[in-house]
Every structure is written in C-alpha cells, then in structure tokens.
Amino acid sequence: MNKSHLKIFTLTLFIISCDLLYSRAGGGGHSGGGGGGGGFHSTSSHNGSSSNLGDFGPLLIIVIVALLGYGLVLSFLLFIKPKRSSKVIELASQTDDLWNLEQINKHTFDVFCKMQKAWETRNLGPVKSIITKELYDELDKKITEMRSENRKNILEEINVNKITLISSVDYKDNAKDAYTAQIDGQMIDYIIDDRSKIIIENTQKSLGGFTDCYEFVRVNNKWILNKINNDSGIIHLMDAKNYYEK
After folding, report:
1. Rounded Cα distance, 196 and 53, in Å
2. Nearest-angstrom CA–CA distance, 70 and 64
3. How far apart are CA 214 and CA 109, in angstroms?
4. For residue 49, what are the CA distances in angstroms to 12, 45, 93, 138, 173?
C-alpha cells in the first residue's frame, strides 16, 4: 500500500467515524451545507511511475465494505431506537400524563426554536427557565467567548423536517425520567464579525442540513432541556437508552 492509498483509506475511516459539526445553538463547528471550500484532491506523479491498480483493489473493497457496514448499522439503529422509545411512551402514558407523545413533540419543537433565537441574539435570558443550570453555564461560556471574538452566529430559513424520539426512560421516581429527541432539518447558518457585519464563515450563505439531539430531563413535573448534541451520529444512537420501570 503506497502513501496515496493510505491517505485515502485514513480519510475514509475519518469520515465514517466523525460527524459534521454545527454552529447553531449548542456551539459546534460548521453547518452541513456551509461554505469554506476545500475538499479532497488527488495528484498524479509524472516521474515515470504509475499507480498499481492491483494494490488499490483490495483497499477499495475494504472501504466499500466499511461504508456499507456503517450504513446498515445506522439504518438499523434509526429503526429500532424510535420503535423502543415509542413503546416506553405508550406504557408510561397510561399512568402519567406528562408522557404524551404529541405534547412532547410540540414542546421539543418550541424549545428548539427558542434556543436558536437565544443563540443568535447571544441572550440566554428568555430560555433560562427551560434549560438546566449546567446547560445554561455551558452555553453562557460559549457566548461569552464569541462576544470576545466579535463573532455572531446568524441562523436563517430554519426548517425542521422531522422530530424523532430515540430515547425514553421512565422510572417510578419521576426525577429520573428523561427523553432524547433527534431533530432533522435545514437552515442557513453563517458567522459574521459583529463590528463590520462581514460574513467570515459560510460566505455563500449556503443552505445546509443538520441533525441535533436534544436531551430533556424531568424537573418539577416539567421537561427541561439538559443537553444539546450537535454532532449526533451512530455512537450517540448506540448510547440511546430506552427503559420502562414497572
């Protein structure tokens, strides 16, 4: 295996194991459709040597198998986790009104929208009562850093396509109850310098897809946002727990 083949293999494994980061509420990196240029470029040698396709064949097979395996596992998790979550909610809702699927989906959507506005305006005041202190402190620190760097995240044309519950845990002790919703959609997500108003990230204002996971915990019989995961992927799905305590 020559160096160019090794680079391709390493890059592929990196893509498989990592997820895109986002700049919206939660403070990740860049949106899926964001600008920034770059990409993968291959270069050819013209010194008389040629690539050995025989060496490349086995590597290509490994890459294809890895990609197919990743896709199959991801598809399975996206099927089984929501199904198990729905079963927990079905059982829990028989004796507990807070486990109402329609209301949970609406609450998740409302909180998501409020968090985007709070993140863009860099003002957590309006959402302080609907998030935990731990999350408030985490986001406040990130917002403070952005202010000091004169960076402001602008979020436009936000469209939520689907909300899927991937984790639901219901205990006899209500204080242990929690659920996690995966939120899929698109938005235009870019960064400006708040002094000059010049766009410094995603300069083309490209529309990008996102997948966020919002984890809610039960506090005083209300669902309070506890964590935001902007890089939701296969590892997060594997860790999603569904449990109903009889």
Report:
1. 52
2. 10
3. 10
4. 25, 7, 68, 54, 69
Q: What pTM, to 2 d.p., does this model score? A: 0.78
pLDDT in tens, 30-76: 454 443 322 232 233 344 444 555 666 778 888 887 788 778 887 88
What pLDDT digit, counting tens, does each position of 84-133 carry?
999 999 999 999 999 999 999 999 999 999 999 999 999 999 999 999 99
β-strands 199-201, 222-229: how paired?
Answer: unpaired
Give the integer Cα–Cα distance in Å for 100 and 110: 15
Q: Which two tokens stand for residue 164?
A: 């899927």
The type of residue at 65 is: V
Domains observed in the chain: 70-244 (3.10.450.240)
Note whether 213 and 190 are within 8 A (CB).
Answer: no
Determine the Cα–Cα distance for residues 49 and 92; give it in Å rounded to an integer.
67
